[in-house]
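> example.struct
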């Protein structure tokens, strides 16, 4: 019988693959948009006032302006942890930001059942369309040359009909499935796992893509947890003797950092507090913070295991006096 032997929740943002100077390239975008924060929306100028009122710390170089890879300074569950578990199959709860799907079709939840995923660095045309500060992190999510990555496990241990039947029995009748992406670009929520956790030694893996970003069909926190629980049951139904890893890829709070919210989230994981996670309202899971729905889905699969662990690292990487930036966090259960 298959067994989940490793669980990881990990951030995947550009601040983990760029320098502090490059973080500030994103401020030009911060200035132009409204920012969801604690259930409301604020302009950059309004956030500056809020930051002063809340005594938010101003951005500090992390860990130093000369470090070419600041994310490496955050303790994280990287290759040694994954390698030691000797994983045969990885299940990755991730999200898409118009990298795999077009705006024409945005399923709430998609199980990717293709045998491979095409991987290639951004073309010059694609790079030119990226917002400032994004292409600079390309090396952290995509290999330098094009090629394929093994995706879904072989039909011997996983077939589409059996997988979807198990999800339907868990109340997820409307889950979409895909055998190839609509866009030939790998989602960064998957790419960070492949590049910086698995270190390009990619095992067969099952990506489950959750639409966290784009209304109106964002699944609720509770539905994400129920998805994860159904996935966990499906994994345990596999007759093959396989060690499995489950990932939640995204978060933490951004593009406005909320350290109190992140601490609450860590505490809920620590206590296996499903109800606290499920009760988080959608108004608190918007913009980049919405990616924590992938963590909630992973929790649904992992709370029913005997695995134990805790926070491996946490660093709120501020880039402006408005409190904008990305909070990076990592949790590992073994």
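> example.seq
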């Amino acid at each position: 019988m298959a067994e989940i032997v490793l669980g990881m929740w990990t951030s995947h943002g550009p601040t983990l693959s760029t320098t502090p100077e490059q973080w500030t390239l994103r401020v030009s975008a911060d200035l132009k948009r409204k920012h969801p924060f604690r259930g409301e929306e604020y302009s950059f100028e309004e956030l500056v006032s809020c930051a002063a009122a809340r005594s938010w710390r101003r951005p500090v170089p992390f860990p130093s302006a000369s470090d070419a890879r600041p994310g490496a300074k955050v303790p994280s569950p990287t290759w040694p942890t994954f390698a030691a578990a000797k994983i045969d199959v990885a299940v990755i709860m991730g999200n898409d930001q118009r990298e795999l799907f077009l705006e024409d079709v945005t399923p709430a939840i998609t199980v990717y059942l293709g045998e491979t995923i095409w991987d290639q660095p951004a073309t010059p045309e694609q790079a030119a369309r990226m917002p400032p500060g994004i292409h600079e992190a390309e090396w952290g999510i995509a290999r330098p040359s094009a090629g394929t990555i093994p995706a879904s496990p072989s039909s011997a241990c996983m077939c589409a009909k059996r997988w979807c039947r198990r999800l339907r029995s868990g109340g997820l009748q409307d889950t979409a499935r895909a055998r190839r992406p609509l866009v030939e670009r790998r989602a960064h929520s998957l790419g960070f796992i492949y590049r910086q956790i698995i270190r390009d030694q990619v095992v067969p893996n099952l990506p489950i893509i959750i639409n966290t970003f784009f209304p109106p069909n964002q699944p609720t926190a509770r539905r994400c947890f129920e998805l994860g629980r159904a996935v966990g049951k499906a994994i345990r139904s596999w007759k093959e003797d396989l060690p499995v890893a489950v990932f939640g890829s995204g978060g933490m709070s951004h593009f406005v950092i909320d350290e109190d919210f992140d601490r609450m989230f860590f505490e809920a994981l620590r206590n296996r507090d499903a109800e606290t996670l499920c009760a988080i309202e959608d108004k608190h899971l918007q913009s980049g913070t919405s990616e924590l729905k992938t963590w909630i889905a992973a929790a649904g699969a992992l709370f029913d295991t005997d695995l134990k662990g805790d926070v491996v690292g946490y660093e709120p990487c501020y880039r402006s006096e408005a409190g904008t930036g990305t909070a990076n966090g990592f949790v590992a259960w073994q």
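> remarks
The chain has one domain: 3-333.
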